[in-house]
Design brief:
- The protein is α/β, with parallel strands linked by helices.
- Helix content is 40%, strand content 20%.
- It contains 20 helices and 21 strands.
- The strands form four sheets. A six-stranded mixed sheet has the order 1-5-4-2-3-6, with helices on both faces. Strands 16-21-20-19-18-17 form a six-stranded antiparallel sheet. A five-stranded mixed sheet has the order 8-7-9-10-11, with helices on both faces.
Amino acid sequence: MYLDEYKRWLAADLEDSDLHPELAGIEGNDDEIKDRFAVALKFGTAGLRGVLGAGTNRMNIYVVRQATQGLANWVKTQGGNQTVAISYDSRIKSDVFAKTAAAVLAANGIKVRIYDALMPVPALSFATRYYECNAGIMVTASHNPAKYNGYKAYGPDGCQMTDDAAAIVYEEIQKTDVLNGAKYISFAEGVEQGLIRFVGDDCKNAFYEAIEARQVRPGLCKTAGLKLVYSPLNGSGLVPVTRVLNDIGITDITIVPEQEYPNGYFTTCSYPNPEIFEALKLGLELAKESGADLMLATDPDADRVGIAMKCPDGSYELVSGNEMGVLLLDYICAGRKELGTLPEKAVAVKSIVSTPLAEAVASHYGVEMRNVLTGFKWIGDQIASLEAAGEVDRFIFGFEESYGYLAGPYVRDKDAVISSMLICEMAAYYRSIGSSLKQRLEEIYTEYGRYLNVVDSFEFPGLTGMDKMAGIMQELRDNPPAAIGERKVVSVTDYKNTEATGLPSANVLTYGLDNGATVVVRPSGTEPKIKTYFTTLGKDLAEAQAIKDELATALAPLFK
């Protein structure tokens, strides 16, 4: 079957001139043909993600057309405005795929609102809500290496598509021939017919106003003199992040020159992920040279942000996603309490794999902390339930340990633009009172205990990778460990058991140990990896680290 499909593509008059040479170059190579054609990229709640190239198992204009036809078929059953918002980041062919999707929608009689230049995930979520769209499309592969691209689909609430809707879209995709099954007109034709329109300045300005309205201490940054180094990692964050920071009074911003402008090849860091040191390396060097108070980096689609903070001794320290989540939660709660802007019955939300330290901090301020499954759509779901009850203003903050944060209900996905604003405001505030981010973090650890949260991951590449991951998870369920190393397992939570958790089913296992530590095992939703999340608590960092190391060593053989 896959050889027949390969030959069909090889014989076709393909519009993308990159595809035919690739297909010709693998002629007679069964492994390479199989890798591209034995399966198709599967459409799920996170949309599509894959390596750029020719074939059904690659990201290309034909797979994008097919996916968009499936989405169009679903939209046509939804009534409403029959409109879809589209944005894209700096990745290779992101603009091409965005215009391709717009053209398919227009050919189906569906109206499109597309950004006239790259803009991040939160801007797409905002436009979807602003124009009361049926759906949204964000062309991005987030923080994956340069050879990847992807297609995230959003529902009318600006949240990533629900399981039910994604299943219908996937069913429609399967009915659509990948090469010629999608309706299609040119982008220019769609514009001429009035079906494709660009996102207006009114929407863009409303997005910035919604973010700036969430300042905790408005006006503080104008006089704080914060010195910042910022890297958009060659992605979509440059314009929105610097616009908002300038608006609130942060003007001493040095942009990392090699990472300033859009570049989908990410030549300065092979993995443009603000969670890893290599992505922040150039920014750190610049921060040390300039003596900046803070170094900040957003990922290519600007929904996540990583930072390095200046310590009292002049050194710089990377801040983990859990630590930043706790710092922001503490800052928002304390500041809004002090200024009388903390709502009654305030709600914060975090994922189940994020640090329990956040629960202790929320409790201290009388804020309800809700725990949800991994994936920001579940945080968006909590905002939606508050909105349905007429209580959306109770939501003050949500975060995931993977560097995603949101303060306010104006969008339904993580937002590195507001996160950058609040991190800078927080740093400016502590600076103004003779403190620092580092000092406040140490105070939090002194008050609540020395938590350590570390994520390890195990990769399973290739066509058999997903099967191997499924086998490991099944083995853990069939033969649950009685101990991990020297630590006895005292509780096991299987998130497939919805009655026990009160949450939707998820392929996640959590082990509670006799020393208070927890270990969470979870396959990634976007990459062929199993992740292990360790939370340990010690009298100091060394003790917490030693416990983590012991647990990790004991678990590692299970993932071979």
